[in-house]
Amino acid sequence: MALDGAFLYAVRNELLPLIGGRVEKIHQPSREEVIISIRTRSGSKKLYISSNAGSARVHITENSVDNPQTPPMFCMLLRKRLGSGKLIDIRQDGLERILFLDFECVNELGDVVTVTLACEIMGRCSNLVIISHEGKVIDSIKRVDEDMSRERLVLPGMKYTMPPRDDRLNFLTAEPEEIVSRLRSTEPKELSKALIRIFEGISPILAREWAFFAGRGAHLESDTIDGDQLDRLLFVIKRTKGQLENSECCFSVASDKEGQLKDFSFIRLSQFGTLMYTKEIPTASELLDYFYSERDRAARTKQRANDLFKLLMNLTDRTSRRIAAQREELDACADKEHAKLCGDLISANMYRIQKGDSSATVENFYDESCPQMTIELDVRKTPAQNAQHYYNEYKKSVTAEEKLAVQIQKGEEELQYLESVFDSLTRATSENDIIQLRLELREQGYVRYAGGKAKPPKALPPIEYKSSDGFTILVGRNNKQNDQLSLKFAEKSDIWLHTQLITGSHVLILTDGATPPDKTIEEAAIIAAVNSSGRNSGLVPVDYCLAKFVKKPAGAKPGKVIFTNYKTAFVKPDAELEQSLRV
After folding, report:
1. Helical H segments across 349-378, by residue range
2. Among 172, 190, 321, 348, which is least packed, fewest CB within 10 Å?
3. If DSSP codes are grouped into helix, strand and coil, which group holds residue 39?
4. What is the CA radius of gyration of the chain?
5. What stretch of H or E contains 439?
6. pTM of full prediction above 0.70
7. Contact (Cβ atoms closer than 8 angstroms) between residue 209 and residue 195
């Protein structure tokens, strides 16, 4: 995990100013999270501690969280043991992923005792343990019994013991000769993996960064590294040591080109090259706050989006099957003229047909050659009733054909609308975007209202861009916003753009009565292509016209418009250009 012992060392350095502060409040927002407010001379600080397997950490936070009305038992115990306690020390054993917070407290007998919080940041084994001045476990946020671990039990009344520890070097104290000796005798041979085996408290991303620096990007083996490469490795380890000890870290976050956060470190990251973006953040606490809150937000957004994806897939599948069935019925109506012909021929040959006949062979006088034609009859009906039966079939087919044509057209428009919502969902980047799409579907009758008093969040404004010529370009986030942008907000002289024959957002160039250069129109067309279902295509046609030529048909679905007097630009989607123009 990226939050290794070395990163925890940097966190500890940031927490040192808390020493001397007193516990003000203690809250437990969830089963594995604790927030301790500590009052210092510079003001109150919130110390966040998480023992969640996927996001274990300890740092100062500025985020606000909702607390349960009734505090959990562990929270009550913390308040009892640490209430008004004074933080007197923050310890770390080497580069172990454990921070010990020592509090000077008063027990029930009025004696001053030291109570320690052990913040164990160890992945799925993470824990928060309260330790008495006698070194015994008072309680832990996760109790570990024999069924969970045979090596180390964490139960009330037992003596607190450190987790099992391998014989590894601490790069803050290790000598170069010792490092080289370990390198030569360590398996595996791949340098980055060997470094993890040699040193305690370093994560894979830190080991890869050291190996990348030593080999200038080339692959290195631990038993063959020598000369300049070895010197560079020892140099980067020494430099990292200085950064940690002198609090000169460069806290960096790496994200992919889709904006998903992937990793972080306390040093500048070079190993990803142009494959990922890196962002520098001032402090370790701010980095951890940002990384995990954004990751949790992305997870919640993904979960909400997955639910909506399933709904849209079901709606699309149901609508497609309904249209297919209607098309089959429409194809069956193509035989309606034959039914009318049968009725006419029966009526013309009424004198030759008797009740009880199962068929009648007559001349088809509508054909020049007057061929013989056999017509099936219902033996229970008179000739006139059989003729009327065929006429009724004809009338039914005519009526069905008219109605089916309308229903198929409505179904295709509905399918196009669902595809537009699906496209908007694939480009949604926040929970608000997902909520607005769900509200839109609810207004259209696709989602049932679940009740609840909470008001939906206010919709975000359109996405704003600035062209290289200084013109403002706006893009709708969903169909409702597309309508507002194109039909209510747009001035007559503004330029409206939309991808041709494929789903996408409405794009508007605000002109203020001026004529934008071709460069601005080209950039707006590229933005329209990127914000459409054709963003992965080689070439995308984009229609554009003055906003005054854009109209909405009566009763049309959100986002559906018609336009005239347009031109078409063919552009290649460019996500990097689109990102660079975004405000």
Report:
1. none
2. 321
3. strand
4. 36
5. helix 431-443
6. no
7. no
